[in-house]
Every structure is written in structure tokens, then in C-alpha cells.
Structures
1.
Amino acid sequence: MSEEILVNVTPRETRAALLEDGVLQEIYIERTRRRGLVGNIYKGTVTRVLPGMQAAFVELGLARTAFLHASDVARTQGQQVAEGETPSPLPDIRELLHEGQHLLVQVLKDPLGSKGARLTTRISIPSRYLVYMPGGSGVGLSTRIEDEAERTRLKGHIEAFAPELAAGGYIARTAAEAAQPDALRADMLFLNRLWESVQRDGEIAKPGQRVHEDLPLAVRILRDLSSERLQSVAVDSAETAERMRHFTRTFIPDMTDRIVVHEAAKPIFEQHGVEAEIQRALERKVPLKSGGHLVIDQTESMTTIDVNTGAYVGKSNLEDTIVRTNLEAAEAIARQLRLRNLGGIIIIDFIDMDDEIHKQSVLQALERALAPDHAKTQVTAVSALGLVEMTRKRTRESLEHVLCEPCPSCAGRGSLKSAETVCYDVFRELLRATRQAEAKELRVLAAQEVVDLLLDQEAATLAEVSAQAGKLVRLQVEALYSQEQFDVVPI
């Protein structure tokens, strides 16, 4: 599988697209006014401690106070659990934090919807090959590094270099596979110098001030996504390309020659079909090649995905048709989760299957398709209701939340009252207005569709209501009103 990264730079917005074998898999968007906060380190102030939730609210100078749970508060030396011991229950949050306390915190999750950012005091700083945890200990390895000999080699090198550096723990990232010892040591030295700088800045920073900011998107994507499979990085800005090359010369020398400037007249995202894919990723319905389709609905609490055969009728029997559709849907779902950056709880309603072997084959196909995902996923077995429940780690807002806002007409419900329903709302309001105000006539201001219905199919009802009210009723079209809006004005 070959990978390619496309970077589109416009004033105050940078977009990056990851393509696998020419197919868009992930899209990243960063705007100057709304830069992601994940990875940033702040000097925060505890404003409120909530014992009933085992959590605290921390002021960072953002629009909403951030949230810090007891499980994300680093233990002191006396609270550390020795190797082999059973972890003790979490201490009371009041033993860990108190109101007015200043502390260094790192953002784990961006603010999502009405929720503030999720924080941790377990600081971790990533580099090309490693993640340094100043408050941790030991050496961990990415589960994606599967070769046991390579895991042993990496752990041995990191443990050998660790004593000459500051205390702390290290995690070898997937990119560390086959990395040379000198490169690992250089990464460890860089991380130690960076942490020393963060500590110095944290001591003099004012409460609510940002102490450390993660790299901008164009550079960060090189650090996080570069691998042997990455064939090229095309950028439509010469200035940004040079900034990326400056980073790779220091940290990823073998990537420098793969960064090229897109100079064609056609915009880079249009040339590779990315713009059209982004538009399709905002739609509810996702067509499948066979003729079936997915329906994806994103809510605040979870995302639901419904699989339908649609126009696909199969060639042999019903069970075969269902299994083929479900297998194709499993691959499509994995791609849509990455492309739309859907996280949290996800419920998948595959088409019902009777054979247990078929159910397992669809689950295995889903897990295989999710394997390349950079976000952590967990899939459960098919439930008694025939649903597949899964979770996907959510650290930033979904594509829909980044690019869209709730419809002003339906307020995000996805539906409007019918014109007929609004007519009957008007009738009730006319009768209510009669009882509350003395007026010679009542004027109804409404959308064109509602007025047309009042003058046509509901004309007799309007006349009856007018007679009952004992008032003349006049209708007035308001072009700026949505179908649900209306006003009854006594005159």
C-alpha cells in the first residue's frame, strides 16, 4: 500500500489529505482562529473541585473551562503503584487538587460541542520516534511494532540511553521501527531539552497562559504520518514546503526529497478529487459499488450507521446477497470513520444474518479494515439485536462539526413542520389572540407555502376560525420567514 499526503495552504487555513493507493482516507483541517488544542500545555488554575464527579474544572483562558478527572491527575512519588501490586482505587479528588491551585496541564481532547477541553497532568511530549513522559518510568512500545526481535532491540537501546538523561518514561512510536541507535538517542536528547524549556516557561508563566504549543498542521502531519509507505508530500505553497523541509532535515532526513511543490494550474485538491470527496463526506447517504448504501447519522451521544441492500439484488440467494453487502459495507464504514473523523460510541446496524459464520466473517472484515486507522478502535460482538457496537478514540471534532453548523431553520433537527401543521398552529394562535387583545382585525405573517395553503385547502377552516373569533383575518407573505415561522398581529 502506497501513501501520499497533499497539503493545501490558503490564508488562515491549512488542509492536509492522506491518500492510500490514490483513495482519500483522512482529512485534517486547521484554521488560525480555531487551531486544535490537543498536545498544548497550559498553566491552569483549578476553579472548582467536584467530589461527586471525581473531577475538577480548570481555567485556561479559553471560551469554556476545561475538565480534569482524578484518573488523569499524575500521582506523587508516594502514590505510585509498585510493579506487581494491584492498583488502588482512585484517591478522593480533594486529596489531589484544591481550588485556586496552579498546575501544568496538557490538553487530551479538544472542546467538543458544549463540552470543554479534557485535560491531564500526565504530560507527554512526542517527537519523531518517541514520546517522552516526564512523570513516567520505564519503556513502552507501540503495539503496531509486531516483530519481537525489533521490540527487544528498541527497548534495549532506549533503556541504555535513559540513565544519562533526566528521569522519565519513553514510548517508542511506530515510526521508531528500524530506527538507528544514534537517531533514537538524538530524539531523547531533544525531548529532554524541550521539557527543560517547558518547565522554565511554566515557572514564569501567568495562570491561563499557554506554555507550549504543538507544531502547526503542515509540520505535525510529517511527524505523525510519515512512514516507509509514504511516497510523496505535495504542497501548493513554496513557503510552507520549505518550512517542512527545514523540519525534515533535522528530524526525518530521508523525507526531505519527497516533499514537492504543486505547481499545476489546477488546484491540488481538485486535481486528486479530494474536494468532491469532502463534499460527499458531509452527506448522510453513502453509496456502495454493489448498489447498496449506508446511512450515517451523527448525534451528540453516538453515531449510528445503517446498512441497506438498496438496488443490489444479488445473483444466487438472499443470504449471499446480504453477506456480500455487509462485507462491502464493513470496508466502506472503516473508511468513512477515518474520513469523517467520527469518534465515541458507534452503533452499526448490518443487515440481519442467520449464519453465525457469516456474522464472524463480517466482524473480521470490519476489524481488518480498521487496522490501518491511526485512532484506537474497539469492536464488540454482534448483539442480541443484531447490532455491532464499537468505539473510536475521539481527540478532535468531526469533519461535519468543523465545516458545518446547525441549520437555522430546523436548528439541527433535520426536519421542519409541514405547512399543514403550521396552518393549524396559526388557527390556534388566532383564537388565543382574540381572547387577549381587542382589535378590529388580525394579520397573519407567514411563509409563502403556509399562506398558499391557507388560501387554498384550508380556506374554509380559515373562514370558520375568523367567524368564531369575530375578527377579519388578513394574510401577508414574509419572504424571509422559514416555513415554521409565523406571527399573528392584532390591528
2.
Amino acid sequence: MGLWDKFRKLFKPVQSALDVSARFRLEKHAFTGTMSRFHVAYEISSGKRFGIKFLDAEKLEAFRSRFRTLQRPEEAEIGMRIDHAAVAKTYEFGKTTTGQEYILMEYIDGPGVNTLIREPTETFLARRLELLREMAAGLEAVHKASFIHRDVCPRNFICHHDMAFVKLIDFGLSLPNLPVFCQAGNRTGTPQYMAPEIIRRRATDQRVDIFAFGITAYRMLALEHPWGTTDVTAFAALSHDREIPKDILHYRPNLDQRLARAIHKCIEVKPSHRFENLKGFLSAIREVKREDA
């Protein structure tokens, strides 16, 4: 029995089909993702609020086909293995009575970091440094569980409405941190946050997440992209090893230089020049008490 076969025995899908309308009251508004549709769901029996994700069968099958012979663990299986305060919890998964695959998860009542970058609130601006530490710790937990998130970007970090905490979401593109899953060629992810080794079809490892985290951190603190791009296509990533990113101090001249250096180290072109892990990033900014020196 292989590693992931043993893993699946621990996290089996719910065996009986979910009758959605009998168990939940769904808010009418849905959020549409790359391979899913997300609703806020109120459990009728308990009144508890959850998030429920309905997976797009056609798009999911296309992604699964890339790893058919490798037995990639499913999104929900990955989520259920990670237990950290800065990672949204996955509670169950299975199929509905209509045959659609679903994932039941923790609901965080608040905006994504992407929204806060576009429309920053005073509370967000005041809390950015601590939120950034939580985000790094959550991603480090994913790496400790031996996965690569593969889609680290502002929209996949959700803040509570009062900015008390932030949580990492969405393991739809995540892969085990094993050589067979890290071979050259897999270009999945969000282009504006792709590491050069992804776009150039080279072998990858967890440092692609560190690169994407660095861009996310830069955008949180500067409210700008380090390469100044507004392009959301794959062409956006081509500049990541062709052009030097603008120094974050250009936008934030008073930013603590230890924090500035740590962010730029995350977005180094060569993986060997980045932090080896997020613990390194957190260590580098341990003594930073506030954003501005």
C-alpha cells in the first residue's frame, strides 16, 4: 500500500449522498472560482454557518487527468490533513444526491486580501504586519504537511471582518511535495504570482509558494505589484525573470529595511536565493515591531 493509499484511509468521503436542501439553507449569492462555485450555507439543525464548495465536474476532470497515474490526493483530503489556526478547516467532502462533488469547510466572515489591497481600510493598514506573520505561519503549516499550495495569492487569504485573523484557503491546485509531482511542465497557478521556474517549465518545489507569498506581501505593504503589471494572463509572469522588481522602498521609503529585505529575498529569481522555508522569513522579521522604522 502506497503513501497516499494509507492517507486516503484516514480521510474518506462521506458515504451517503448529501441532500443539500434538506440539511442546509444556502445564500443565493454564489462566488465562482476557477473550478468551483462557493455558497455560504446555514445548517438547518444547528444554525451553524459553513462554506460549501460545489466542484465543476468538467474542469475538475481536466485537472485530475494530468495526475491520473500519480494518485494525487483530492483537494478536501489535503485540507483535512492541515490543522492550523491560519488555515481554513475542511470538515467533510463527498457527493450530493444529484451527483455533484462538494466540500464543506469553515466560513470566514470577511474580505479577501485582494479586496483589501484594492480598497484598504484603516484597520487593515494598521494590522498588516501581524496579518502577514499569520499568513506566513499558515503557509508554513501547509509545507510541513508536505504539500505545495501552488496558488498563493491575495484572494486565497481571507481576513475576518474586524481584521482579528486571516486564513489561507483553496487547495484545488495543491500537490504533494514529492519529486513525481514537481517535474517540469505544470503551469497551473495565478500568473501574476508565478515563480519563473513555473512559467519556464522547470522543476519546482515549495519555493514557488515562497515566491508567490513574497509578491503577496509586497502588494499588501506597497499596494502595488513589484513588476507593476496589471496583466492577468500568462504573459504577466514572463517579466519575473526578465526585469528587476521595483524596490519596495520606492513606494514605502520608511519601511523597516529588515522587512523590505525579507520580502525581496522571497521574490528572488533563483529558488536557491530565496528563503528555504517560511520559518526563515519569520525569523528575518522577528524583531520588526512595526512597518516603518
